[in-house]
Amino acid sequence: MGGTFAPLKGGGAAVALDEIEISILRSLAVQLLELIGPGEPEPAADADPLAALFASVEEGPTEPPSDPALARLFPDAYGGPTAGDEGVDPAELKARSAEFRRFTENDLRTRKREDALAVVHSLNGLSPAGDGGAVLELTGELPLRWLGALNDLRLTIAARLEITEDEESAELMRLPDEDPRKPMVMAYLWLGGLQETLIETL
Questions:
Q1: What pLDDT does 2 receive?
Q2: Phi, psi of 17 (to 5 degrees)
Q3: Phi, psi of 128 (to 5 degrees)
Q4: Which of 120, 138, 162 is nearest to 31 (CA)?
Q5: pTM of this prediction?
Q6: What is the pLDDT of residue 115?
């Protein structure tokens, strides 16, 4: 498999990872979890589920995150304050985005958190070979969980590197080895290869 995903007989995908790759993926997933933040506390056993649902909705954020990486993970639904359809008041767009965010961001955070946790649990469950590497096999819902997490990791790294276009990532590939951004660029490109081959496999 050589570091890229390949199909499993009967469905799913598999990839051979060495010890360093496993460590990098786990570390990145844990950092993503820390960035997204803790989940909502579990409701009490005797709590009214309908009341808890409405309470959760009311507490949803209405403003985009100030952190550029989180803003990339949780973008405005209507393109942000500078976007505008012809004839639509920018203030109206901002209000629509705020309302959409209030009803959706908490659920989106939960899904992204679950995707990242699935990556961590998958890696923790690996049985290492003699060289410390292992073959990761993804079946059931795990391939889609991994796709979501790989995409979120790439978006986060792209925000940190200020990558907005493919041309910019191509320029970053030519960075000298001593550039402090080089390891992050290599991780970004590697994650892209994993994501692409996982999509092709599915």
A1: 52
A2: -125, 135
A3: -65, 145
A4: 120
A5: 0.81
A6: 97
Strand, helix or coil for residue 7: strand
- Angstrom distances, CA of residue 11 to CA of 7, 139, 141, 164, 197: 7, 7, 11, 34, 15
Tokens 């979501």 — which residue?
Answer: 148
pLDDT digit string, tens, across residues 95-107: 887 888 888 888 9
Q: Identify the band that residue 93 occupies on the pLDDT scale cut at 50, 70 and 90.
A: confident
Domains identified in the chain, total number: 1
In the prediction, which pLDDT does 80 show?
Answer: 54
* Mean pLDDT computed over every residue of the chain: 83
Domain contains 44? no
Q: Which three-class secondary structure state does DSSP give residue 145? A: helix
CB atoms within 10 A of CB 157: 21
- Sheet containing 134-138: give its strands across: 6-7, 13-17, 134-138
**19 found inside a domain:** yes
